[in-house]
Prior knowledge:
2 strands, about 60% helix, mainly alpha, 14 helices
Amino acid sequence: MRCSVSGVGRDSSTRLNRSTGAVGLRTAVLSSPGATATLSRSGAFKDPAVNAWAKRDLYRLARDQRSWQLDGEMTGIGLAALLDAMSSGDDAALVDLLARVSPEASEPDSDKHRQLQGAAGLADELVRRNRATNLVQISIALPADEMVASLEYFGGQVKEPASRGLLQPTSSPVEVADAFVENSYLRHSLDVQPALEVVSSRAGLISDEKLGAGSLTWLQANDPGSEEQLATLLEFVDRGRRSGTSDATMGAAADDGTLMHLASFSIRTTVR
């Protein structure tokens, strides 16, 4: 969406107060946060008249907005600029405003790419504005069968390393772990490192104990289909071990010969 401000700098307060163009601009900004990104990047909000208009009119109406939809990178960048200004450095206020961002993708966005682009833009801009704290989260609903691919895509979209830690799947840590294990034994993707980096960037996003236990359970009943699949599942097991997977779980895998079998399988695959 193209958005322009005419008259800024020359009797702009009169134009913004009285012209129907101000109404159109307000509508554009509220209906598409991408318009805010255009204004912010152009430096328009630094103009005293535009800033006064935003405080008097735009922010007041934006606070009444019940839900925001992420749909492309510019909507995320614009939303970050808007919420940063509205929260005035108050982290609790920013968290409350972020809770209005819909965790669901729009209907046409079936692969969630535009939503994740928007989440990446929102996260990057909040990091650049020094608003990224442990309290700040961007909630996104990710179906189990798309979890790993979506996390990998988000990780590839962000430009600031700290942005990875702002994404908050609506799934529980146990559900996230289950999705990783299922992805690996169904062999949807064996290169899970990019997705793991996202959920490992902040504590509490994934249950390493469940990741290890779930992988061991599958390996007790199945042989890996490849060296790569074995390496992935064993990494999950090791993460679980380091996080404190119960002695009973590890002991059962040792007692029934699973660990010995995996060692033998690994040697045979490597020698081959």
